[in-house]
Design goal:
The protein contains 3 helices and no strands. It is mainly α. The longest helix is centred in the first third of the chain and has 60 residues. The chain starts with 12 loop residues before the first helix and ends with a helix.
């Protein structure tokens, strides 16, 4: 007589297939979650790098502005500004004012302007007039 053994649950093909399918589904979900986390970390690292660069540039600008403020607070800057903008001078100095207007466009009493001086035409225009102008 042959003794038949009962198949245990581990020897059943349907159970093994179901176990493998559930394992595969678990691996797929884990892979998607891991992929999303990797992409998110990469974006965060890029944002950190751009923020660090921005901080460096702002610190540099802050140093430049601090140096500018330091210079503006000096007596030499105040003296230069007083001389240029307010016309101050030291004792014993003589202030000289030089006009930058050459007088070419002076205003009349009738509030009209004199015409600007005539500009000589370029050399090719002179030749054109010489050969083709009506005489």
């Amino acid at each position: 007589m042959v003794i038949q053994r009962r198949k245990t649950i581990w020897q059943s093909k349907s159970f093994v297939r179901a176990l493998m399918a559930s394992g595969l589904v678990l691996i797929i979900f884990t892979s998607f979650g891991l992929g999303k986390e990797i992409v998110r970390r990469k974006e965060i690292n890029q944002e950190i790098e751009t923020t660090k660069k921005e901080i460096e540039s702002l610190e540099k600008k802050n140093k430049e502005l601090a140096q500018m403020i330091e210079y503006i607070e000096t007596d030499s800057f105040k003296e230069i500004q007083a001389r240029q903008n307010l016309g101050f001078q030291k004792e014993g100095e003589v202030a000289v004012s030089i006009e930058t207007n050459s007088g070419d466009y002076q205003r009349d009493n009738s509030t009209t302007f004199a015409s600007p001086p005539a500009i000589d035409p370029s050399n090719p225009k002179r030749w054109w007039r010489y050969f083709f102008a009506a005489k």
